[in-house]
Amino acid sequence: MHDGSGRIVVQNLSKQFGAVNAVQNLSFTVEPGSVTGFLGPNGAGKTTTLRMLLGLVTPTSGSATINGRPHSQLGNPARVVGSVLENEGFHPGRTARNHLRVYAAAIGVPDRRADEVLGLVGLGSAADRKAGGFSLGMRQRLALATALLGDPQVLVLDEPTNGLDPEGILWLRNFLRSYAREQGRTVLVSSHLLNEVEQLIDQVVIISQGVTRYYGPLEQLRKSQQSRVLVQPADPSALVKALQDNGITGVSPTPDGRVAVAGSTVQQIGDIAAKAGIAVYGMQEDHADLERMFFQLTQGQYTGAPGYPAQGYPPQPQYQGPPQQYQQQYQQGPPSGPQQHQGWGGPQQ
Ligand SMILES: Nc1ncnc2c1ncn2[C@@H]1O[C@H](COP(=O)(O)OP(=O)(O)O)[C@@H](O)[C@H]1O
Ligand SMILES: [Mg+2]
């Protein structure tokens, strides 16, 4: 019936709502055993894409398949894919357990599965409470429990960190990582906030205005950011010389009298300074770049978005025909990103 792979393949997917191009020619693959973050600002087309994948919206063109099949041809879809979309409603007067039992019956799984999934999402002690009194975070967990009822091979979650407190986000991160990695399942998670999902995703698809801006391993995006170390030495020019003598060339002074060093670690810099007899009063790693790159990649969506300066180090886009805005912004010759990891490539043509 289907290929059983648990793979999600989105291929040249587009959706138009009247004059609005909500999704344009989107392509990506989500492999089993990994968590993919589907990122973009509000209105970027994330929910529309997920709804097409789940058979709730008909694509204008292109396809979205799970196990090689469109959702409508999955047979018993709840056994293949569990999903949580925006604004999932619960009957407010129903207890968590009864809510789950209604859904369990609908998809043909035994009642006891309701208690199993409540335990999985940490709501065991709230089983007899009415969903109407749940906090947003508890509702997110109950929605996830509902998605897990059919013990699906694939999980699709739309903005699951919304409403979760930091502890809830940590819990979700551990849960999804083990669901994907230890159990070999496929997880696709959307978010408009990179920093909320950064810790839990392996691969990332970044979209803006319905168009792919980046697609590839998160690690590659991270590596391409040329993080810097800001050093405060007693003698800046002596440190610059010592670093250059040791083959470290990405060195530049900062307006506040420090030395910015790219492509080197705190330890390497400290060792070189010590050997050269230069006192160092402080070192600071500059980590803001991933977030900044996310804004750079998506800022075209809003005119007047915060002006994050282009650093000239975006990764090479991994899709055909990058949008013009992107090409123009970086046409000054960005350094090549690391080679694309084989096996994470774009969709098979
Ligand atoms: N049913 C609809 N009818 C008309 N426009 C829609 C509909 N659903 C979404 N859109 C529009 O499509 C674009 C993408 O929306 P959406 O997929 O919800 O983005 P996201 O989930 O990334 O915030 C937005 O401009 C939105 O207004
Ligand atoms: Mg959305």
How does this model look, in words?
This is ABC transporter ATP-binding protein. Residues 318-342 have a biased composition (Low complexity). Belongs to the ABC transporter superfamily. Residues 305-349 are annotated as: Disordered. Residues 8-234 form the ABC transporter domain. By secondary structure, this protein is of the alpha/beta class. The protein is 31% helix and 23% strand. The protein is built from 12 helices and 13 strands. The chain has a 6-stranded mixed beta sheet, with helices on both faces. Strands 11-12-10-13 form a 4-stranded antiparallel beta sheet, with helices on one face. A 3-stranded antiparallel beta sheet has the order 2-1-4, with helices on one face. Helix 3 crosses helix 4 (112-120) and helix 4 (112-120) packs across helix 5 (136-148). The longest helix is centred in the middle third of the chain and has 17 residues, at 166-182. Residues 302-349 have low confidence and may be disordered. The structure holds adenosine-5'-diphosphate and magnesium ion.
How would the blueprint of this fold be written?
Blueprint: E1 8-17, E2 20-30, E3 35-39, H1 46-53, E4 61-66, H2 77-80, E5 81-84, H3 96-107, H4 112-120, H5 136-148, E6 154-158, H6 166-182, E7 186-191, H7 194-197, E8 203-208, E9 211-217, H8 218-223, E10 228-233, H9 236-245, E11 251-253, E12 259-262, H10 266-275, E13 280-286, H11 289-298, H12 324-329
Parallel strand pairs: 3-7, 3-8, 5-6, 6-7
Antiparallel strand pairs: 1-2, 1-4, 8-9, 10-12, 10-13, 11-12
Helix pairs in contact: 3-4, 4-5
Bound molecules: adenosine-5'-diphosphate and magnesium ion (MG).
